[in-house]
Amino acid sequence: MAPFDQPDRTDHAAAGKRQRSATAEIVFLLIDNFSHLAFSCAIEPLRIANRVAGRTLYRWRLASRDGVSAVCSNRAVTLVDMGLAPPGRIERLIVVSGDQVQQASTPDIIAYLRRERAAGTPIGAICSGACVLASAGFLDGQVAAVHWEYHDLFAELFPEVRLVRGVFVADAKFITAAGGTASADLMLHLIAGEHGADLATAVADQMVYNTVREATAEQRVSLQSRHGTRNPCLMRAVTLVQENLEEPLPPARIAGALGISTRQLERLFRHHLGTSPKRFINQTRLTRARNLLVQTDQSITEVAVACGFTTPSTFSKVYRAHFGISPVAQRSTLR
């Protein structure tokens, strides 16, 4: 794989108005099982920016633990340019990871990142890469974005980090993006800041990307879209459920917080979601439990407590009834 594409001499007057003299050097550290989608969405805007601008605004190198290759989560193999040797003066080092993130924070990776931080290298992360930065101790007291699938894991392991639901964080010491197409949003934001909004817009047009999001945009499909309703009372009830999984609120308290009767709450859930409030609460708790079982090494007891179950035996019984498999077997199967 070539480290960067030679740009086409495309004439684009709008982009050419804001040219910098220096070429930004970026290193992407690819950790096995990284997200191919997140990586592609991060690197392609840089290639296209070179092409549209008609000169090399960005160069990049790829790094991995062994300095030979890295395997992404879809099993494709990407050849890299270097191992964990010092990359020299670069504009930014970006960690790209994905599945099995707890195995990603190996001692050599952590040592490498700490060495680069000490050398003054700006460091960022995409997808689950924020978990690696947090493991290195970089994000304590900081704001960070991580893929929504890892929110439960992240909140359990790194409570001192201020996790946001937005697609990226670009105004913090360590930039982070949630992965997927959020990587493109972050890169377009950086391109706009470094070379102007006209170039970023031209790059988005080349990507046929017409929904560029601001940092605060929600990662997931809105509650209204997911549940097919815009009923504000129901949406507030769903939010209360999601915000109180460790100590679940009974339907009566949710109804009281909304200023309606329990019977009205029942009707809302059955009419719009086809289920009862109690069943919806349990399903939401069990979904979080499933995430924690797969993504963390927490004991069954710890997972049960984190999801509002009083005893492991109760948790196991409810879990088996819902998923048809015990928590222990679920963890083994999905891993």
Order of helices and strands: HEHEEEEHEHEHEEEHHHHHHHHHH
Number of helices: 15
Q: State the helicity in percent bands.
A: 40-55%
| Separation, N- and C-terminal Cα atoms | 31 Å
Tell me how many strands there are: 10
Oligomer kind: single chain
Biggest sheet overview: 6 strands, mixed
Poorly predicted sequence stretches spanning 5 or more consecutive residues: 1-21
What fraction strand? 5-15%
Helix/strand structural class:
alpha/beta
Rg result: 23 Å
The shape, in one word, is: globular
How would you write the strand order of the largest sheet?
2-1-5-6-10-9
> Would you tell me the overall average pLDDT?
85
Features:
46% helix; 15 helices; 6-stranded mixed sheet; single chain; globular; 335 residues; alpha/beta
